[in-house]
Amino acid sequence: MKLLKPTWVNHNGKPIFSVDIHPDGTKFATGGQGQDSGKVVIWNMAPVLKEDDEKNENIPKMLCQMDNHLACVNCVRWSNNGVYLASGGDDKLIMVWKRAAYIGPSTVFGSSSKLTNVEQWRCVSILRSHSGDVMDVAWSPHDAWLASCSVDNTVVIWNAVKFPEILATLKGHSGLVKGLTWDPVGKYIASQADDRSLKVWRTMDWQLETSITKPFDECGGTTHVLRLSWSPDGHYLVSAHAMNNSGPTAQIIERDGWKTNMDFVGHRKAVTVVKFNPKIFKKKQKNGSSTKSSCPYCCCAVGSKDRSLSVWLTCLKRPLVVIHELFDKSIMDISWTLNGLGILVCSMDGSVAFLDFSQDELGDPLSEEEKIEPMKAFDSRFTERSKATSGTAVVTNTNQAVVDRLKDQNLIKDNKPKDILESSSDSEEKIPAVKPLSVPKRKLELEGETVEKKKKGRPRKDSRLVPVTLTVQSPAALASEKDAACISAPALALKLPSPIPQKSFTLQVSSDPSMYLEVENEMTAVGGSKLSRLKCNREGKEWETVLTSRILTAAGSCEIVCVACEKRTLSVFSACGRRLLPPIILNTPISTLHCTGSYIMTLTTAATLSVWDVHKQTVIVRDESLQTILSGSDTTVSQILLTQHGIPVMSMSDGKAYCFNPSLSTCSGRQAARLFSMPHLVQQETTLAYLENQIAAALMLQSSHEYRHWLLIYARYLVNEGFEYRLRELCKDLLGPVHYSAGSQWESTVMGLRKRELLKELLPVIGQNLRFQRLFTEYQEQLDILRDK
Fold it and tell me: For the Protein HIRA-like C-terminal domain, which residue ranges apply (predicted)?
């Protein structure tokens, strides 16, 4: 680990209250006190990372300084896509900044001509609503919302797509609100205040989910900030400024039931800021040996009024490292680099520090594919919140296990109180102090002791290979399975594993273009039934929809997205979120789902294989049994893939490979489909799902009259709600290619209706919204060109 303090990062001796590293890692922002105003500065990251760049006078250190805030800036935060910077200050304002086109160097106002702005950042929105100092701001996981909190006891949720529109004002705190953090899944936002409570709010209806007070009952005094943090897997929420047996802690709150049984112990004064590393890690494998992979874990940094910083791995019972007296005053903010190995820390003393870790110290970051696994990353014997009566020294409860373990590792010889107790000379709050032992050698091996969860037929990232294991059971064992279909066979029947339902999971579909799916099950009850949400993010553009059954597995390609639900339904969407088919009913539960191009392949628990071509709306392979290949032996399918031409290829555990030839099979006809109806809720995504279902059903029923009716209603809804991405895709499909090409697969009609005539009907609807003038003009011109031909 390297530790540096770049002295050139400063606000001329004035306090720095906030620091945030840009998502691309090339720059960082600081916020704090200026001469007569609040100050926001954007700095170059290169001179921090490389000593040569720091010495090179041609490489600028400061990129831009903004003095627009009328009073001290308490928080600066980059949007996740890196386009915007939000800052909040004592002038009750939130300012949103965006980089402007370079016009040439401009001098910083009021400075000597030497100080020039290398980059131009201008304020594009000023958000006014709070009646007191703004203490913290936070962008939601996909930048749809910006939250701010204030000493006016409120949290305001801004519509980041339509600043300065306010979506909600969250009222419930009875004290100054000093910290915010979004759940990475986007289901909750949490806030912490001086009223000794931490509140979790639902994003679905912006109502209070829970208020946690117990860990804060003993808290005396206040801190300037209460920066809390959510773990990247969404399982843990960690607070600032909690107390356990009179000792300052950072409280660990479990998402599951909001339990408060664990905490980070050891700082001598109140914890001001906690920040989770954006990465999830697994134990570094020694010299490439293929040992059993360890349970994944998270990494969290904790800063305190005691001027020290501790970094914890959730698989260890004690901090990985503690740096005492890092600053002269309280730590105010922490920011990790996106690769998870670097950390910037700022202090009220006006300076910043940078820590650089190695992968040997933290571990290997999980790939997108591995992140799908459920996480329960805390050591099962992690610092339990002591049940002892108040007054018992916190040391006896929490540190004995640490001492025992250190003894096991021969890191300390005897257990004298001086090893773990330290007199608290500079502490304002007289408390029994616990000094976590600094790690003696940097080569300390990380310990992960949590029971590993086995993978069961979960979707994988690779766009070609889907490993799947087949287990063979006797018919008697199968007979008890309620919804498994038995295939009659001489002596054995097959039952493949089905994906275990998860509360939520993420899946990367492709890296170029960047496209990933997020699934959240059991979101809310509608008339007694639970809904599930599917979100798709493609190169920063996002769509979402809801389904009435739990989503078990998902797959996708650059062209389509497909999900399989618990009710044995398969739902298919375009890459922009339009439902392309009514839900397909599978005969037996899903085991494996796969997409390549416009093809979908399913393998069910009864070992039947099906393939559809979504573009042509045809079945290529229907319910073909793998019984003949698999029965009577211990052979299992080791890998199964779908070629670009929709042909399934299986490689078996005995080394043989099979290719299914659709042209020789007897499959034909339309797939079994059942009309899918849903309550017409006012909620946007539900309405979209409802309208798209009507269109898909009209297509399936070959009802041109209903198709046109629902298409116009759908287009009007997209216009009203501002869904440009989907509107554009719809127009593109209706227009087709302007210039004839022999290879074009575009059909000019749909159920006898001419697509370009439908587009003519849609365009006036689109033209009514000023936002879509460019889209309207673009397609009107294309139609004119075609007419003139």
Answer: 577-666, 682-734
Report whether pLDDT(777) > 60: yes
Instruction: Write the DSSP string, 609-660.
Output: EEEEETTTTEEEEEEEE-HHHHTTS---EEEEEE-TTS-EEEEETTS-EEE-
Residue 656 is predicted with a pLDDT of 66
Going by pLDDT thresholds of 50, 70 and 90, the confidence category of residue 493 is low
Given a contact cutoff of 8 angstroms between Cβ atoms, the answer to whether 303 and 334 are in contact is: yes
Q: Above 70 in pLDDT, residue 297? A: yes
pLDDT per residue over 659-673, tens digit each? 676 655 432 222 222
- Contact 643/596 with Cβ under 8 angstroms? yes
The CA–CA distances, whole Å, from 550 to 318, 388, 522, 546, 569 equal 39, 42, 7, 10, 10
Residue 442 near residue 273, CB atoms below 8 Å: no
What is the pLDDT of the chain when averaged over all its residues? 78
Which two three-digit tokens encode residue 605? 């628990």
| DSSP tag of 393 | -
Reported as type and span, the H/E element at residue 766 is helix 755-767
Q: What are phi and psi of 26, to 5 degrees?
A: -90, -15
**Residues 251, 226: contact at Cβ < 8 Å?**
no
Strand partners of residue 515:
510, 538
The yes-or-no verdict on residue 525 having pLDDT over 80 is: no
pLDDT value of residue 436? 36
The total of other beta-carbon atoms located within 10 Å of residue 442's CB is 12
User: Which structure tokens are listed for 159?
Assistant: 């519509």
Q: Is 215 helix (H, G, I), strand (E, B) or coil?
A: helix
Confidence of residue 287 (pLDDT cuts 50, 70, 90): low
The Cα-based distances of 203 to 182, 186, 190 in angstroms read 10, 7, 10
- Rounded to 5 degrees, φ, ψ at 674 are -125, 140
Report residue 143's pLDDT band, with 50, 70 and 90 as the boundaries.
Answer: confident
What are the respective helix, strand and coil percentages of the chain, to the nearest 5?
Answer: 15, 35, 45
State the span(s) of the chain assigned CATH 2.130.10.10.
Answer: 2-102+122-282+297-368, 504-661
- Enumerate the β-bridge partners of residue 166: 158
- Single out the residue of 90, 155, 83 nearest to residue 125, CA to CA: 83
> In this structure, what token pair is assigned to residue 289?
């040996």
State whether residue 470 is helix, strand or coil. coil
Looking at residue 240, its pLDDT comes to 95
What is the greatest pairwise CA distance in the chain?
A: 93
How far is residue 169's CA from residue 206's CA, in Å, rounded to a whole number? 8
For the segment 172-211, what is each residue's pLDDT rounded down to a tens digit?
Answer: 999 999 999 999 877 899 999 999 999 999 988 899 999 9
Amino acid sitting at position 342: G
How many CB atoms sit inside 10 A of residue 325's CB? 9
Architecture of domain 504-661: 7 Propeller (2.130)
Alpha-helix residue ranges (DSSP H) falling in 330-440: 359-362, 394-398, 400-408, 417-420
If one counts every other C-beta atom within 10 angstroms of the C-beta of residue 163, the result is: 17
pLDDT at 475 over 50: no
Beta bridge partners, 188, equal: 202
pLDDT in tens, 322-345: 999 999 999 999 999 988 999 999
Over residues 421-447, the mean pLDDT reads 32
Distances (CA, A) of 77 to 110, 147, 469, 552, 670: 26, 11, 45, 35, 52
Residue in 162, 212, 164 with CA at minimum distance from that of residue 191:
212
**Contact (CB, 8 A) for 314 and 297:** yes
What is the structure's pLDDT at 290? Answer: 46
Q: Which of 20-29, 53-62, 383-392, 719-728 shows the lowest per-residue confidence on average (mean pLDDT)? A: 383-392
Residue recorded with tokens 């690779």: 462
Q: How far apart are CA 522 and CA 625, in angstroms?
A: 33
Residue 212's H or E segment, with its range, is strand 208-212
